[in-house]
Amino acid sequence: MKFDSVEQILTFAIGKEQEAADFYTDLAGKMEGKQMREAFLEFAAEELGHKKKLEAVVEGKVLLSSEERVVDLKIGESLTEVDAKPDMGFQEALMVAIQNETNAYTLYKNLAVATDDSGLKDLFLGLAQEEAKHKLRFEVEYDDFVHQEN
Amino acid sequence: MTENTEKLPPKERMKIPRQSMPEQEPNVRNSNFQEVPLGLTEEQALLEANRCIECKKAPCIPGCPVEVDIPGFIRLVMDKEYAAAARKIKETNALPAVCGRVCPQEEQCEMVCTLSKKFKPVAVGYLERFVADYERENDLVQLPEIAPPTGKKVAIVGSGPAGLTVAGDLVKLGHKITVFEALHKPGGVLVYGIPEFRLPKHIVQAECDVLAEMGVEFQNSTVVGKMDTIDELFEMGYDSVFIGTGAGLPNFMGVPGENLIGIYSANEYLTRSNLMRAYDFPNNDTPIIEGKNIAVLGGGNTAMDAVRTGLRLGADNAYIVYRRSEAEMPARAEEIHHAMDEGVQFHLLTTPIKFNGNGDGKVTSMECMQMELGEPDDSGRRRPVPIEGSNFIMEVDLVVVAIGNSSNPLIPQTTPGLDTNRWGNITVDEETMETSRKGVFAGGDIVTGGATVILAAGAGKKAARAMHAFMMNEVASQV
């Protein structure tokens, strides 16, 4: 994967957010229970929110910061992989989401390491920070819901 | 010893020290399953009751989730009217012997006790237990008056504290009550979850026996949602249904190796030991893995129950492994101290990230990481963050996962139109406890997620009032 410009990177990142939104919308359609359908549609809406933010970056309305410190609970790093299935519960839904956000975070971190261009590196780190925030949002919910007494 | 302190002025009453409940010595009790606290003596109960300064505001009453008339029952203790004191409590709380043992009074009535501003609060829980035990042990339990039959039939699904409360309140009003219990004995979490050393089973059985004498029919070993659905209960002629099936679905961490042999959920481990009496071998032959090095994951009351059970079943090392620090532990301070006194070893700010097993698929160790706590976030909760490179191996041959529970999914899955939230809890009107299905009410942990006995009982009270109104309005509309 090679990128030469800020625009290329942002176009790629916007595409990834849309992909994620489509993934959750598709999953919502496969769920047996109303609550899981709604949860995945909510996740999809959040991804579209992220996409909108990146579009605002393209338009110069918003700046991404690579400096911002985002807490990493690292819950995702020790979770087993789960396959999405129609009768999944909310814990598994969160595991799927954490998995996706962890993958996206790792992707941008790796891309940042792989480039020598300091401008592009900053952008990748900024995108990684964005994904770290999304990951944290799901990990906090996992902490509250799964680790109620832990 | 006993002196009449009835006329002591408040200042004198405040000089009476809070009474300590006698209990089994730690090195004795950690190898038996008998109850740990032994209850106040009569002399102690009188002294403790006389510590109550009978303040005008009585903040203890709103401090109780079901608003027991605490000063009223304590006054009766002072007058040595112990059975009357128990009956006073039962006006709003059907389970005083249970709540006197397991209610977190230190976070409720005792926390707001006027005395606690300068002194230790009145030991409301100890007194509650004393009067309830006195009434039961002296055969002074009186059956309440039962109203003439209404001709209405109520199905109660689940016989935990919420279900038992609904049963008690509605049978008094003349309704015909059937309680459906999935296990072979009634009591729900009170019998499968809480160990004998904290809540003896005969106390719960006595409460159920009283309900049976009042006319409540218990149908045990009946799994509603599998054998009959809620809709089928209506077809069978029930006019209203209460769902109190609790939070019986254990949460697991979701880390690798969690399905190895020797890793139990707390529900399974405690059910085997408590309800199935695995501890009582050879009188009962329930299989249970008796680990020598047992790790219990979590910091709630369930975790304390499990780890203390492990000790009693013969563990050489019984560990609590908890991701946060002692300050964040949800267990009652009393239970944490009981566990510590008995020799439980606490590994705080520690989490397993992987379980390792041998060739037979049995757990042999867990890879753990040390954690540090971040600043409280917007919710106020401090989040544990693993410390890079802090990994270490803990040798274990039994792990009990006690990190939390989710609502039992069986009935929501088999009842069309019954709304739940995303965590699987049934959603209700908070005033009436009515669900999205007409005539179907719910309360207790199935609605709130894992909570306290008294909150479940409080929900049962609300539901009973609403169910009665629902059924009687139907009668009125048919006239």
Structure, described:
The complex is a heterodimer of chains A (150) and B (479). Chain A has 150 residues and is mainly alpha-helical. Chain A has one domain (6-145): Ferritin, core subunit, four-helix bundle (Ferritin, Up-down Bundle), CATH 1.20.1260.10. Chain A contains 4 helices and no strands. Chain A has helices spanning 6-30, 34-58, 90-114, 118-145. Chain A is globular and about 45 Å long. In chain A, 39% of the residues are buried. Chain B has 479 residues and is an alpha/beta fold. Chain B has 3 domains: 10-137, Fumarate Reductase Iron-sulfur Protein, Chain B, domain 2 (Orthogonal Bundle), CATH 1.10.1060; 153-248 and 407-478, FAD/NAD(P)-binding domain (3-Layer(bba) Sandwich); 253-405, 3-Layer(bba) Sandwich (FAD/NAD(P)-binding domain). In chain B, 33% of the residues lie in helices and 16% in strands. Chain B is built from 18 helices and 16 strands. Chain B has helices at residues 10-14, 26-29, 42-49, 60-63, 70-78, 82-90, 96-102, 124-137, 161-172, 189-192, 201-213, 230-235, 266-273, 301-312, 333-342, 410-414, 445-448, 453-478; strands at residues 153-157, 176-180, 217-219, 240-243, 249-250, 263-265, 293-297, 317-321, 345-347, 350-357, 363-376, 382-386, 392-395, 398-401, 405-406, 440-442. In chain B, strands 3-2-1-4-16 form a 5-stranded parallel sheet. In chain B, α15 (333-342) links the parallel β8 (317-321) and β9 (345-347). In chain B, α3 packs across α8 (124-137), α6 (82-90) packs across α8 and α9 (161-172) runs parallel beside α18 (453-478). The chains are: A mainly alpha (150), B alpha/beta (479). At the A-B interface, α2, α3 and α4 of A face β10, β12 and β15 of B.
